[in-house]
Design brief:
The complex is a heterodimer of chains A (288) and B (278). Chain A has 288 residues and is an all-alpha fold. In chain A, 70% of the residues lie in helices and 2% in strands. Chain A has a two-stranded antiparallel sheet. Chain A is globular. The chains are: A mainly alpha (288), B mainly alpha (278).
């Protein structure tokens, strides 16, 4: 299809209009409004320029919430990546076409189901009378229910890992599609064992997929509030919960400043990763 | 994608470890939900598993009389259908634009996919602020606007995957035989990617149906389903919560599984058609 550029342009217009109008413009306006001031007369904002909201980012323990959210997101990302690399290798390298397709479907399906229900289900499993505690007690490993299983950082990270594994696995599977089979066969003909082949041939070749997955998981884990709200301990907060709390006292400029700070961090991360690993090329591997 | 098993026979240790980790991944993704499904069949008011002989759909039947649940489901269905009806054609047009592009393809794709990377709460907050300035009252319409942005990248990817099965030579042949670009699109491309468009619609609908963070900021007086569910989950455990959680999961897993099976078949058939024609 070699359409002339006006046709191409017309085809691109609707999606660009949606992404710019509903995506970029609100983010840019929020960034602008984060430098305005709260207006007590209208409970909204007024164009009086101020840096007060950015100063307030570091007050009232907000810096701690930022760091805690980023820390839990980083832990989630690390665990997800450690699990995703072997899992994606099973799909991309160690399975026949039928089993690979089935596994890929199994790893993708949860993404289209309610994240709320999946997080909530952990409550049944990890609670004081949940399956895990029942099993531990009946096996005699512990005498009383283990309290830190639920309503804890452990539960939040476990819930996030289970929820966001597809984001880590699928980019790596895409990266596997770009590996020439002959390269792997050659390494084995030359006598490389599994681990040599894996660490010297496979890992470097799928690295862009690993980085893309790493980034995806970190981004969603940084922005989510569901797992913290359903599985976190009393008083557990996250950046998204903090935005809600700030809005409850209608401090719009501060909410905008928090959002802008997060978006700025994400833009920096995504730009660095894209420069270093050419992430947009991943999609070429499935022939699109 | 697979390696000839004869050349990987020396890899059993690594294979076993990797296979175990893959199984562990599937277990943490599916086991809690399966447990929830079984627990939802327990007719007693207390939580936990019942012996299979006592399984009952009691709590599922109780859902049918839950007025607020029905209202939330109706609202979510309206939002989901409206979102999917708009996201599917726009996603297709973005995919066609990407295929036709010679320059700036990577940048265009990155822009389209970037909507996936903005945290839901932040996207919802920004939209709600702008809509407030524009004087738009929160309603199903404002939620739909937020969900359109969220689902568009996925709709575009599903259309792109469909278009990748359409060989340029097939289109070129139609053009050589005198078909205009529109005729070639309607007679060749559209039938080949029909199943992808159906999938795109259903994926967008399902993503909208379970979206919570954006809806929280954009919803009007009538809650959507995830907002209603979130409220119910946080206000004490009633057995009906397990039943509607179970119902939501079963319906969405079945729909997506059927779609995947259809897509896989269509993709292999699509290859067959285009290779014959090419």
């Amino acid at each position: 299809m070699h359409a002339r550029w006006p046709t191409t342009f017309l085809l691109a217009v609707p999606s660009l209009a949606v992404l710019v109008g509903l995506g970029f413009v609100p983010l840019a306006l929020m960034a602008t409004w984060s430098f305005w001031s709260f207006d007590p007369d209208t409970y909204w904002i007024k164009p009086v320029w101020s840096l007060a909201s950015y100063a307030a980012l570091l007050e009232d323990g907000r810096a701690t919430v930022f760091l805690r959210t980023a820390g839990l997101a980083a832990l989630t990302t690390a665990v997800s990546t450690l699990l995703a690399v072997p899992a994606a290798t099973v799909v991309g390298l160690l399975s026949g076409p039928r089993r690979a397709a089935l596994l890929l479907a199994l790893f993708t399906i949860p993404f289209f189901t309610s994240g709320l229900v999946r997080a909530f289900a952990w409550r049944l499993v990890l609670g004081r009378q949940g399956v895990v505690n029942d099993a531990l007690i009946s096996l005699g490993i512990v005498q009383a229910p283990v309290e830190w299983l639920l309503f804890s950082d452990f539960a939040v990270v476990l819930g996030m890992v289970a929820a966001y594994l597809p984001f880590a696995i699928i980019p790596i599977v895409l990266a596997f599609a770009r590996i020439e089979q002959s390269v792997i066969r050659a390494s084995q003909d030359l006598g490389a064992g599994f681990w040599t082949m894996f660490s010297t041939i496979v890992l470097p070749l799928v690295m862009p997929g690993i980085v893309a997955g790493f980034l995806f998981v970190f981004v969603v884990a940084l922005g989510t509030s569901m797992e913290t709200q359903l599985l976190g301990g009393a008083g557990a907060s996250s950046i998204s919960i903090m935005i809600n709390d700030v809005l409850r006292v209608v401090n719009f400029p501060l909410a905008f400043a928090i959002a802008t700070a997060v978006v700025a961090l994400l833009i920096v991360l995504i730009t660095i990763a894209n420069r270093a690993f050419r992430l947009s090329r991943l999609f070429e591997s499935i022939g699109i | 994608m697979s390696v000839d098993p004869t050349v990987t026979r020396h890899t059993s240790g690594g294979r076993l470890l990797f296979g175990t980790i893959a199984a562990l991944c599937l277990a943490i993704m599916y086991a809690p939900v399966l447990y929830l499904l079984l627990a939802s069949l327990n007719p007693d008011a207390q939580l936990g598993l019942a012996p299979p002989s006592r399984y009952s759909l009691k709590w599922y039947l109780a859902l049918l009389t839950d007025r607020r649940l029905a209202d939330a489901l109706a609202e979510s269905t309206l939002v989901g259908l409206a979102t999917a009806a708009v996201a599917t054609p726009i996603g297709l047009s973005a995919a066609l634009a990407y295929r036709a592009m010679t320059r700036l393809r990577g940048l265009f794709l990155l822009v389209v996919l970037s909507a996936m990377l903005v945290p839901g709460a932040i996207a919802g907050l920004g939209l709600s602020a702008v809509l407030r300035v524009l004087g738009l009252t929160p309603s199903w319409f404002t939620v739909t606007i937020g969900h359109l942005l969220w689902t568009l990248p996925f709709a575009a990817i599903v259309s792109l995957i469909g278009l990748s099965a359409v060989k340029p030579s097939t289109i070129a042949a139609a053009r050589d035989l005198g078909a205009g670009p529109v005729r070639a699109f309607l007679d060749i491309t559209l039938p080949l990617i029909g199943a992808n468009l159906v999938s795109s619609f259903i994926f967008a609908f399902l993503l909208s149906l379970s979206e919570h963070a954006r809806a929280y900021y954009l919803v009007g007086r009538q809650n959507t389903l995830p907002l209603y569910m979130f409220g119910a989950m946080n206000s004490g455990a009633s057995p009906t919560i397990y039943a509607f959680s179970g119902a939501v999961i079963v319906v969405s897993v079945v729909v997506v599984a059927v779609l995947f099976a259809g897509l896989a078949r269509q993709r292999s058939e699509g290859r067959g058609v285009s290779s014959k024609a090419g």
